[in-house]
Amino acid sequence: MQRHIVLVALLFLFCTTLNAHIVVNSLEYVDVVSAASYANVIGDTSYYIYPASSLQSAVLAVGAQEVTLVSSGSAPVHTGYKNALESNGATVVGEMVSSDPLSFNLELASSAATQTCSFVLTDPDYTYNSVSLFGYAKASASYILFATKDNALEVASFLSGAAAGCPSGALGEILVYGSVDSSVLSALSSEGILFEQIETGDKYSDNIELLKRYFGSYGSEGQMLFADGTFLEPSITEGAFPVMLVSHTIPEESEEYIASLVEDGSLEVGVLIKSDYTSPVYNLMKNINAQYPEDDKRFSVFVKMGQTSAIGGEMQALDFYPLPGVVLELALEDVQYNTAKEEVELILTNTGTVATYATSTIRVYSDGELVATVGDDEPVLLAKGETRGISYPLAIESPGALAANITVYYSSSKIAFENALTAYVDMGMVDFVDSSMLEITTATYSPAADTVSIKLTNPGQEDVYFMAEVSYTTDLSSSTLSAPEVKSLTPGQSTVVQFSGLLISEEELDSLQMSATARYGGREEFLVNEVSSDVEIVAAPEPEEVEQADMALPLLAVALAIIVAAIFLFGKKRKKEGPAAQKPAAPAPLAPAPKPRPKRSAPAKKPAAKKKK
After folding, report:
1. Helix-strand-coil percent breakdown of the chain, rounded to 5?
2. What is the reported pTM?
3. Which end of the chain has the lower number of beta carbons within 10 A, N or C?
4. DSSP assignment, residue 549?
5. Residue 304: beta bridge partners?
């Protein structure tokens, strides 16, 4: 049947009385995600107050019904909201207060565990991940659980305990989505929790992998939502449809995947939430439909961009709940020309809140004349707070007054770069050859202490700057732990860097492979050299040895008791024999005195000599 092509249409959201059973009054986005995800798991509905909404509209949207009210203890949208709800006919049958968003997320996870054994873990710093996850979490009956370095142990302990309440005695699907701290993965492994992870280093690629799982496992209703990941809106949080992340530039990978879904009949309609990206989504639709000029396969796009108010009146802008911005910010520290190595050196600092990919283009001028253009072939990843120097080979014959026209594109994605830093600056000149040296003297891991100790030495003649890290793999998990900061050593100096809390279980020790690596250099920003070493696993005592050592104290006590009893009996016998018996014997003829024999240790102390640490 021929389908009608709708290029761009307006969808109006009519907000009359909602069937909202869980109502969220919080400016903390984690509270909103937690409550909405919990409602989806238990089959309930949710409503959250928009930060820009008036108290009146927030009350009328709920109407006269029984609700469970979730409120932030420190950051509600409206104070006095409960009284306003009840004055309008609503009945608050339950009330929950979130004093800490991450703790509250875990608290609701415990309640959700009565209905599901599946969970999706993600890092709350990457706010767009929640937007991607709602559709998949709803389809897989999973609760969205936030996991960070600070609560990794709590999350792993909760999941381990939740397994006991599952019908099979085991957890269902555990999916780790996007970048999370390595301590989260280690904590899961230490509890023996099996999990899968989607983590490509790019938010759009992660999103595509999640959509593949969605359509592969749960099919679809032929519809998909488009959003940029910067806000929540009811059609997103109710989880009825999967969400594809879009921006001003739609990655080629995303467009190809949409085309494949249209090709196999899995997708017919896309709904763009808000009109910010109408042009790129329209072009996406046009490109796909151009592949079927005479076929009945068509892809239609609608734009949800307005609503009518619960109290009537003209159409109003679409209500949405803004998410905290993922702050992407790079600072240009310096650009200079190293005459000794004939390299342009660019120094950048990631001052944002998440790891950031950067790719640079630098036009170099000498005395006002363009000499050359240098830049990155592949994006460079800067960790949060990291300052890094990047070198570009360039031979300049008789350099004059040097200047650089710099453009740095950067993003949390290594595919689509949404931000740019531009500058035209004079370039200084340095003459520096890196002759720094660094050795890893020893590297050991103690399972008993759960600690890696790396001893590093500077055998050179110059100061050395370094950053250490440990990588390990087992049959169950793999992870890399990095030191939080760059350290330095003067010539001849040594230091020990330790990594604790790896949480490697006993079952993993047999398959454990571990290495230590240090990036180093003569300048703090340019850690251009690397040294590595295998980590020696310091074995724990054998069970037999432990048992023998533990038996030493009981044996010592028995031996002492025998000695005391012997002394007592001997003394009693001499008393009975009387004074005569105690008279000394006549002296024997003089003879050469025998050489003294070495004293022997008391028998009771012999087992103690077998103790081993």
Report:
1. 30, 30, 40
2. 0.71
3. N
4. H
5. 11, 273
Tell me: pLDDT of 479 over 80. Answer: no
Residue 411, phi then psi, degrees to nearest 5: -170, 165
CA–CA separation, 440 vs 478, rounded Å?
22
Is residue 401 exposed (0-12), middle (13-18) or buried (19+ Cβ within 10 Å)?
Answer: exposed
**Which strands sit side by side in the sheet containing 196-198, from one edge to the other?**
142-146, 118-122, 174-177, 196-198
List the Cα angle 201/40/304 in 5-degree steps: 70
Q: What is the pLDDT of residues 12-39, one digit of tens each?
A: 333 333 456 899 999 999 999 999 999 9
271 — phi, psi (to 5°)?
-120, 115
What type of residue sits at position 49?
I
Rounded Cα distance between 402 and 337, Å, is 8
Write the DSSP string, 35-49.
HHHHHHHHT--EEE-
Give the three-class secondary structure for 552: helix
CA separation, residue 274 to residues 230, 231, 319, 335 (Å): 11, 10, 10, 41
Mean pLDDT of the residues in the chain? 84
Q: Bridge-partner residues for 338, per DSSP? A: 343, 430
Rounded to whole angstroms, the Cα distance separating 135 from 232 reads: 13
Distances (CA, A) of 461 to 434, 435, 450, 456, 530: 11, 8, 35, 15, 18
In degrees to the nearest 10, what's the CA dihedral of 484, 490, 493, 498?
0
In the block, tokens 């990941």 appear at: 229
Q: Residue 463: how many CA atoms within 13 Å on its side-chain side?
A: 6
C-alpha to C-alpha distance for 481 and 499, rounded to whole angstroms: 8
Identify the band that residue 4 occupies on the pLDDT scale cut at 50, 70 and 90. Answer: very low
Task: Report strand pairing: 231-232 vs 321-322.
Answer: antiparallel
Strands (E), 376-438: 380-382, 387-393, 402-411, 419-426, 428-430
